[in-house]
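Record type: monomer structure entry
Structure origin: computed from sequence
Chain ID: A
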Amino acid sequence: MAHDFLVKDIAFQAGLSIATVDRVLNNRPGVRRQTELRVRAAIGELEKQQAGVEIQGRKFGIDIIMEAPDRFTDTVRDAFESESLTFLPTIFRPRFHVAESMRPQEIVQLLDRVRLRGTDGVVLKAPDVTEISAAVARLEQSGIPVVTLVTDLPNAPRTAYAGADNRAAGETAAYLIGERFAGRPAMVLATLSSNRFRGEEEREIGFRRTLRDRYPSIGIVEISEGLGRDDATGALATAALSGNPGINAVYSIGGGNRAVLAAFAAAGRACAVFVAHDLDAGNLEFLRSGQIHFILHHDLKADVRTAFRAILGRRGAFAGAGPARLSAVEVVTPYNIPATVR
């Protein structure tokens, strides 16, 4: 396994002990395949961080912990890797800990392990549950800043939240759908990945409140706990369509859009208006083909810059950090796709 890095740097990047990394690098027996893959991934991340970096400034190792579908974590990973270059000569060394599904206790154990090992900051996308908030408190009490990403933990003493105004996003979705039907009865399928995420809950609250106040003829059928995965979300959508023949619109709060569209097609049903979140490759494909009508977009790169500034501010390395600002929500159609994502 060729590399140009110190064993201690690889160990820090991988979140493993020096002895374990040494066993992997020297092909000693008794090493799990998963551990070997973590070492390879750490070397790959170090190579990316080193590429093109000529000026050596202060280095910050940060941990990004997310429970989210792969398509979203891939987008976030790209944003962190690209935006870290804009802070040169300061160098960020991100370590990613991501999974499509994690039990709260697994996230707590990971947060505690990161705290005991040491880090310059944590960026966290996790469910809003008591035990995770308590783990965040332990990190902050240890002097480690925690920034919540796209979904907040408002009861935790985190340093900052980096993301959009999710309630306003839900209100915007209600307006787009409500105006499309112009007072006519309709039924919206609202899809959440999980009701444990505060950001999705805020979107749903804004959506329901605006429909109730401005468009009372529009009803809602909600599905959740598909975790944004196509198989689980598709099964939930199929059952909802079967039991509710009036569903003719979708507000996708938590993803799994390919599966939802497939469920409509399998049922031979038309979707008059489909509102989704995030400009990932799949959603762009559906937007261009007319299967998704509006995408509520906010700039993840701006969120990453907010996270970096908040961590630097707590570390005394960025005097102008100030309070974090919410990202603007933009309504994207096939005619105004941002040039940066085309």
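Annotation 1: Residues 181 and 218 are 9 Å apart (CA to CA).
Annotation 2: The chain has a mean pLDDT of 90.
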